Amino acid sequence: MDIPEQSRSISQEDLLQLLGVARRWLDSAAGQMLLDSERTIIRSELEHCFGQHLVQYGLLPELLDEQRSVLRNHWRLDLLVSQGGLPVDETHWPFAPHSLDVVLLHHGLDFCLSPRSLLREASQAVRAGGHLLIFGFNPWSCWGINHFVGRDWFSEAGFVRPSRLVDWLDLLGFEVEKRVDGCYRPPLDSSAWLERLRLLDAWGERHRFPGGGFYFLRARRQSLGAIPRRQRGREFPALALPPLVAGSRRAHKRDKP
């Protein structure tokens, strides 16, 4: 069965510009609130992941820099050329199928040409029993209002619905083991107001309300009848990185949220 396609157009150049604007926004008060909450979650959730090989991709490739000791081998993939990252095309990763233990998509589906294609590329690299960890912006939240009314970079980010993503993962052979929501406070520019509204986060987390500004999914690739064996040694081919075509105004299709 194929993942149903609904799409809109965005050029590669526009995508790279959008990603740059969003990364600069991470230095704002709301951006730091987002990263603090997400790092707290990923520190806890990585304890449920095992193996040797981890790849991270998305909005902030450095999200796991403090967690490099969790798995032996750790790669950062990036659409933009950055220090310490491997520049790749979102649909051509330099890893053999079923060769990775953990893939982390940090809002990768929110900043791509085609969430469907990126998810398929990331999923096929995960071994049986391995994990796909996904952070995404929640359209059904106060953050989603900015997306629908066309405010700043929020209007162009993907905002894939978590329910749709769960369906995609099921089609790709993954079972969602856990969902966590975070950032119930709106993405305000004022640090003072964010501090005043801190109780919203405490309330949302206590009641596990599915309306946080972002969601986190931990999904495991299913295997039938056997416990996955621990991989010994590297299974990757030589890293022949495909060129990233930047600056093209040709329209590419991506999925609507």
TrEMBL record:
GO terms for biological process: methylation. SUPFAM superfamilies: S-adenosyl-L-methionine-dependent methyltransferases (SSF53335). One of its GO terms (molecular function) is methyltransferase activity. Transmembrane segments: none annotated. It comes from the Bacteria. The keyword Transferase applies. Residues 89-134 form the Methyltransferase type domain. Keywords: Methyltransferase, Transferase. This is SAM-dependent methyltransferase. It comes from Halopseudomonas pertucinogena.
